[in-house]
Design goal:
Layout: H1 18-32, H2 60-70
């Protein structure tokens, strides 16, 4: 018996500027539907949403990782 479709949710947390987050959202949209001008419906229904985290402390590890990885070596204390 074939499996019935279900709703799946994929969450992606980013440490980014608003502009960077919007760019990532647009890239994901293009991966899901590379031809936005096609006649509806999409073969696989999908949607994307962008939310700013309510409490950055909930993502402290991600914020710290972003700060470390974006640090310019020439600014690191010796």
């Amino acid at each position: 018996m074939p499996e019935e479709p279900r709703v799946w949710e994929i969450r992606l947390n980013l440490y980014a500027t608003a502009r960077q987050a919007e760019e990532v959202k647009e890239r994901i949209a293009r991966m899901l539907c590379p031809d936005p001008d096609h006649a509806p419906p999409c073969p696989i229904p999908w949607s994307t949403m962008l939310f700013e985290a309510d409490d950055p402390d909930d993502h402290a590890d991600l914020v710290e990782q972003g700060r470390i990885e974006s640090r310019r070596p020439e600014l690191d204390p010796q």
